[in-house]
């Protein structure tokens, strides 16, 4: 529902009375029809954001149509645009879905950048085993600063193989 106001004046009373049965009613009826026609070509966002240009378009169209009646349309103002509650809910749901979709895209782009950075870091660490060991120690230092009571210190099992012996590693001698 749209409320609009049309300001007009009669500049030629003789023509206004002789050419139209009721110039006031005709002007209001023409204004309602013009408003419906102009708004029918716009979407809701344009109606809400371009009130002045819509008003100007309407004023021009009404002034041209009422000129033969001796009526001059001075100004048109769109006062209020009211949306049904169901449409408001539908628009809110659509906007929420669009926000969630944008958030998912942004999160996915962040994950992609993070994975690329991790790949680059791993490429650097592959070139230098000492860098990998330093990163490992840095991670342990970070963990210990958090006052955890238990630190799991993973050690590759193949490092311990020479110290354990062949039977402890799951190998059996066949005789």
TrEMBL record:
GO terms for cellular component: cytoplasmic side of plasma membrane. Pfam families: Band_7. InterPro entries: Band-7_stomatin-like (IPR043202), Band_7 (IPR001107), Band_7/stomatin-like_CS (IPR018080). Residues 1-95 form the Band domain. Belongs to the band 7/mec-2 family. This is Band 7 domain-containing protein.
């Amino acid at each position: 529902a749209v409320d609009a106001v049309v300001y007009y004046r009669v500049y030629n009373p003789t023509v206004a009375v002789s050419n139209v049965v009721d110039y006031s009613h005709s002007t209001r009826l023409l204004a309602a029809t013009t408003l419906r026609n102009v708004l029918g070509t716009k979407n809701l966002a344009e109606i809400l954001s371009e009130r002045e240009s819509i008003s100007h378009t309407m004023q021009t169209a009404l002034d041209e149509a009422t000129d033969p009646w001796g009526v001059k349309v001075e100004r048109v103002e769109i006062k209020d645009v009211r949306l049904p509650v169901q449409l408001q809910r539908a628009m809110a749901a659509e906007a929420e879905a669009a926000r969630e979709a944008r958030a998912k895209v942004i999160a996915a782009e962040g994950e992609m950048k993070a994975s690329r950075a991790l790949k680059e870091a791993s490429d650097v660490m592959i070139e230098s085993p000492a860098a990998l060991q330093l990163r490992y120690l840095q991670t342990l230092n970070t963990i210990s600063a958090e006052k955890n009571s238990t630190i799991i210190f993973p050690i590759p099992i193949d490092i311990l193989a020479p110290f354990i012996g062949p039977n402890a590693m799951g190998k059996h001698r066949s005789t």
